[in-house]
């Protein structure tokens, strides 16, 4: 390369740098200022959501989505400022988003279900619920699944899509729960005596709540027995104990009184 060619290339390079230096300077200025502004916006949004007592999982997730959305917007602005055509880049992003959306339809349904659960709170961590054929205590509400623990210590993961679209029975929301039991006695037994015995058993149990008051009444006259509804109320923490103790104590009290207990059914 001759000295003249070298000087010509150097002149062109200098001219190019001079022409593009304002664009490069403004592009990098936008980049650095944008990154700083995104950090401030993200912190501000997190503080606002925390002050409004939003769920921590939802707060982190929404803040992360906002963070990456702003970063992508800043990147597109940056490359556009330095003179790169962004139309093809945006088209590629759109195609990628469509492909990912089609391949993750089930996951997106679970994601939407998780958002609904977090926002509307049909249950919270620590609640005992019945849903999708499972009765368990909620351990963790994740974005795609809800982690629960059954009474026999089995961990169950229920997809949030099915969970949010199905029926959910929350046994913990009200703080108190009623046990619905049925005791059947023979027709030749003294109904009033049997009722007094059953009610006395409930009133003597310290775990049975006085308000609402426990109930005992005849609910059915079947072909071979008189059926009593026995309904004690208990705190959620005492429900299992009250359920089992009522069964045992009522059976023992009726036997001691000489009242014959017929086969009965239990309604949970």
UniProtKB/TrEMBL annotation:
Lineage top rank: taxon: Bacteria
One Pfam match: MS_channel_3rd
GO molecular function terms listed in the Swiss-Prot or TrEMBL record: mechanosensitive monoatomic ion channel activity
Keywords: Cell membrane, Membrane, Transmembrane, Transmembrane helix
InterPro entries listed in its UniProt record: LSM_dom_sf, MS_channel_1st, MS_channel_C, MSC_TM_helix, MscS_archaea/bacteria_type, MscS_beta-dom_sf, MscS_channel_2nd, MscS_channel_C_sf
Boundaries of every Mechanosensitive ion channel MscS domain copy: 107-172
Cellular localisation: Cell membrane
Protein name per Swiss-Prot or TrEMBL: Mechanosensitive ion channel
PANTHER family the UniProt entry points to: SMALL-CONDUCTANCE MECHANOSENSITIVE CHANNEL
Species of provenance: Flavobacterium resistens
Cellular component GO terms, alphabetical: plasma membrane
Membrane topology summary: Multi-pass membrane protein
TM segment ranges: 20-41, 61-84, 90-120
Domain Mechanosensitive ion channel transmembrane helices 2/3: 72-105
Coiled-coil region(s): none
Family to which this protein belongs: Belongs to the MscS (TC 1.A.23) family.
Domain spans labelled Mechanosensitive ion channel MscS C-terminal: 180-260
Main subcellular location of this protein, as a coarse class: membrane
């Amino acid at each position: 390369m001759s000295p003249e060619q070298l000087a010509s290339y150097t002149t062109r390079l200098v001219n190019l740098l001079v022409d593009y230096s304002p664009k490069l300077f403004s592009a990098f200025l936008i980049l650095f200022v944008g990154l700083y502004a995104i950090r401030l916006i993200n912190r501000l949004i997190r503080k606002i959501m925390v002050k409004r007592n939003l769920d921590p999982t939802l707060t982190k997730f929404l803040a992360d989505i906002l963070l990456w959305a702003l970063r992508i917007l800043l990147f597109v602005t940056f490359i556009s400022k330095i003179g790169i055509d962004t139309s093809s880049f945006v088209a590629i992003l759109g195609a990628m988003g469509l492909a990912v959306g089609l391949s993750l339809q089930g996951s997106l349904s679970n994601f939407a279900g998780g958002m609904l659960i977090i926002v509307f709170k049909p249950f919270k961590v620590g609640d005992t619920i019945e849903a999708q054929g499972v009765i368990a205590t909620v351990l963790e509400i994740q974005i795609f699944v809800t982690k629960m623990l059954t009474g026999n210590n089995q961990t169950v993961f229920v997809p949030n899509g099915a969970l949010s679209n199905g029926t959910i029975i929350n046994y913990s929301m009200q703080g108190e729960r009623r046990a619905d039991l049925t005791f059947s006695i023979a027709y030749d037994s003294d109904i009033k005596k049997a009722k007094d015995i059953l009610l006395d058993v409930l009133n003597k149990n310290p775990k049975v709540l006085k308000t609402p008051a426990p109930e005992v009444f005849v609910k059915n006259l079947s072909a071979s027995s008189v059926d009593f509804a026995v309904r004690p109320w208990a705190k959620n923490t005492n429900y299992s104990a009250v359920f089992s103790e009522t069964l045992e104590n009522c059976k023992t009290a009726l036997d001691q009184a000489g009242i014959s207990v017929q086969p009965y059914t239990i309604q949970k």
